[in-house]
Amino acid sequence: MRERPKAPTISTRNLAVGYPGNVVLHDANITLPGGVISVILGGSGCGKSTLLRHILGLAVPSEGAILVDNADLFAMDEKQFYRHKKSMGVLFQDGALLGSLTLGENVSLPLLEHTDLDEATINTMVRLKLSLVGLEPFVDYYPNQLSGGMRKRAGLARALIMDPKVLLCDEPSAGLDPITAAEVDQLILDLHDAMGMTIVVVTHDLDSLFTIADHVVVLHGGAVLFEGGIEALRETDDMYIRQFLDRQPNTRKAPGWLV
Amino acid sequence: MNELAVLSTLINDLMRCVFSLFRRRRAFYGWQDSNHMTAVGTDSIGIVSTIAACTGMILALQAAGQLEKIGALSYVANMVSVTIIKELGPLLTAIILTGRSGAAFCAELATMKISEEIDALHVIGIDPIRFLVWPKMLAMVVMLPILTLIADLVGIVAGGLFSAIFLGLTLKTYFEQCVNFLTVGDVFSGVIKAAGFGVSITVICCWQGLLARDGAADVGKRTTRAVVQSIFMIILLDFFITAINYMVL
């Protein structure tokens, strides 16, 4: 049997990310191990999605480096960067499907851009990936004719069409009902078992976290607060993480006139 | 400053598209080209023709009111044809396309920017400028001059019919006057103007669309800005092109 190619490890070295005048994460040294499902966890505005944008190469870090199997992402030449992009699949928050194209056309875009496959083969591959996420009957639908969960699954089909070695998901369960969210989580687990990809999920959904995570990174206050396995996370004594995991609100003093 | 950086990157990327115009492209880029040609060109013929016809008739009526006083009613044809071919044809067509297509370009790109569709294209490895903006530029630069020629024709014919029916001019006299007075250079300068307007409308509207950041309200704000800036730029360009034309010819 042919051995599956090893999925790459993504790591950061003294990384600082954010926008001019507003660095949201600094001095981050994170390792997202190859072939493992890693979850980046943190409250709103802690820099999770911004970190993901940097890993995707959509923004340049103000300091430090992002390494993909020890190759610096931002020191790659055009060809290397193109190869890196081809090896990555991304599920955006709302699927980010192009509204003017049908589901089938959306999923076929990466193949049309990067391969010279004929139309029949592309159609077969598109139907295969759509059936993987249970959307084959909707191949001719436009994104606005689908529900939020279906758009996410379609986004996943597009992310998988090039058989990526790395899958990055930005809040895959956000805005979904609990059953659909659980379906998306199960889909991520199935894909991981079937394809052995490096999967990075950005979320603040605790149910998702405990269902899919092997490795967890917690961001808070512009720094990496925790990095390790899911069991270590359960046992941590860190006050913020305990508050986060136990869903405890911050204590606020009510104004005098209210009391 | 950041907005100007986006503008300069957009212009730079569009220049790259110009230089690679004859290079082999993936077939699916053709979807976008033909969709935009239809949306900008074919779908605008009705409104452009209607407005051009009304303008031709209004011009004939206004000119007749003045020229009748000095007994030069036959010069209505000159007045209508020169004003439409040199000025109002390209200008009105450009303003109609700014409202119709330019606003749509801006709103489309702004919505795509906010819903991360443009980021998704980047990640897939598709250049969003080539895939989204270049077909719009191509459609505007090709279709605006063609629509201008249609507007010229419809405006002059409508002015002629109006003059024949209500002002007592014969169609023969009207069209003879038009042909004798107009030159190919006049038509050509209008077409060149239209192409220039097409470039500026596309660049401004797409630039504003790409600047969108903060949700639905920003889409509206950017679209308004795109239309206002485009119309301002069209009038400014028109002034400069007309001035240069006047000095050269």
For the structure shown, list the relevant keywords:
heterodimer; A: six-stranded mixed beta sheet; globular; B: 249 residues; mainly alpha; elongated
Number of strands of chain B: 0
Low-confidence stretches of chain B: none
**Helix segment count of chain B?**
9
Radius of gyration of chain B: 21 Å
**Main pleated-sheet profile of chain B:** none
C-alpha geometry of chain B: elongated
Side by side, the strands of the main sheet of chain A go 7-8-9-4-10-11
User: Would you list the SSEs of chain A in sequence order as H and E?
Assistant: EEEEHEEHEHHHEHEHEEHH
- Note the beta-strand portion of chain B: under 5%
Q: Return the structural class of chain B.
A: mainly alpha
How are helices and strands ordered from N to C of chain B? HHHHHHHHH
Protein described:
Chain A has 9 helices and 11 strands. Chain A has helices at 48-55, 78-86, 103-114, 119-132, 148-160, 178-195, 206-212, 230-235, 239-245, and strands at residues 10-19, 22-28, 31-32, 37-42, 63-68, 71-72, 88-91, 166-170, 198-203, 215-220, 223-229. The model of chain A has no long low-confidence stretch (mean pLDDT 87). Chain B has one domain. Chain B is 85% helix and 0% strand. The chains are: A alpha/beta (259), B mainly alpha (249). Chain A binds chain B through residues 53, 56-58, 82, 85-86, 88, 90, 92-94, 96-100, 105, 109-110, 112-114, 158, and chain B through 26-28, 31, 35, 111-112, 115-117, 119-126.
